Amino acid sequence: MAVGRLVLTRSDRLSLARVLVVLNWVSVATGAVLLCVGVYLWAELRRWEELVSEDVLWAVPVVLFGTGLSVCVLNLTGARICLDCSDQNRFLRWKLVLAPYVGVSLLLTAGLLLAAALCLCLGLRLDSAVEAGLSSAMRRYKDSDLNPGLKTRLDLLQIHLSCCGKDQYQDWFRVQWVPDRYLDRTKAGVQDRIRSNVGGAYLSDSVPFSCCDPASPWPCPQTGLTARPAPHFLSEVQSSRSLGLWGRGCREALGRHYWSILQLISFSFMSVWAFELLVVTGVRYLQTSMENLVLLGDPLSDSEAWILENGLCETARHNLRVIKNLSKCYHDDDDPTWTANQRGRRGGTANQRERRDVMNQPEREENGLCETARHNLRVIKSLSKCYHGDDPNLDQPIREGGRSQSEREGGV
């Protein structure tokens, strides 16, 4: 039983072709959106590349570029095909292309789902990657001579995303962020702080200038923050703001920033997937309808259309039989016993062989595609021999007939 069987009139086929052309162009636009989102994500990754420890997100722009280009090229081709397939004469030019086109479209549709799942899976690893990258960047913040770009990027991150520290502003108390060239080691206070730490680092209760919130009504002290405790009834964010600092950590801010981009990408993938699914379904209906119309021979008549002709299970069994026949054909070519048996059956004249081939035609059709191909080659060879006169059984009657005719003419 056919799956999704419909009967389409001539006007239905024309309307379906027009709708498919529009859907293909919409899919081209969504593919262009994927390219734009890929460029935006690539720019954001380049912007904060030193603040993410793992390269977990660099695969996403590559997938976006490849998928976007594939969607654009495939749907531009599909728009042309659907425009021509509304006419029976022009349909014959694309008849052999439609089946591969539907197959490639199905593969692309499945790839879109996998790409959306990839974005969601990478989002699960995003938090740990951002945490490790920020911890490493904060430890190297003081090495402005060796890596001045890192200090600038971290300051810009805290200013643009309105954050301070990894999780809170106290994270700066646990690392030395002041460069060594700005420390006066002759002072007793500096020496005491260095000696009080096992690693010999200069730790202080201060934060960089980029942690200050310019919109805060309170001044930003930056140093001696432990001597200015906030009221105990305030939350962590409120206590930070009461000191004139940003209220959230950069891990949360940067993670949300990248997560919003991944959500946009997933939504774009699902939108393209929905349009591609509609296009594939419509093209399949148009293909089967036009093929049945060609068999009927009347371009104005109604024609049946379906998604699967024999049902899902029957189609799967048919494909398995085709694969088995192809594999059997491959192994039979290497079997000397089979070749000898076939040679033994090929005795007799060309006419006898051709007659035997015709009688055995139903049996050969059951043997699969390769056996039919061999049969056709043998028929062509036998016909070529007959044409060139290489068969002695065919030449003998001709020669005898020729002599008898000449003798009769000589006798006359």
Summed up, the helix count is 13
Largest sheet: 2 strands, antiparallel
What is the CA-atom radius of gyration, in angstroms? 39 Å
Contiguous low-pLDDT stretches (5 residues minimum) are 333-348, 361-367, 390-412
* Order of the strands making up the biggest sheet: 1-2
Explain this structure to me?
The protein is an all-alpha fold and 412 residues long. Among the domains are: 6-136 and 253-309, no CATH class; 334-411. The protein contains 13 helices and 2 strands, in the order βαααααααβαααααα. α10 packs antiparallel against α12. Residues 333-348, 361-367 and 390-412 have low confidence and may be disordered.
Descriptive terms for the model:
about 400 residues, mainly alpha, two-stranded antiparallel sheet, 2 strands, elongated, disordered C terminus
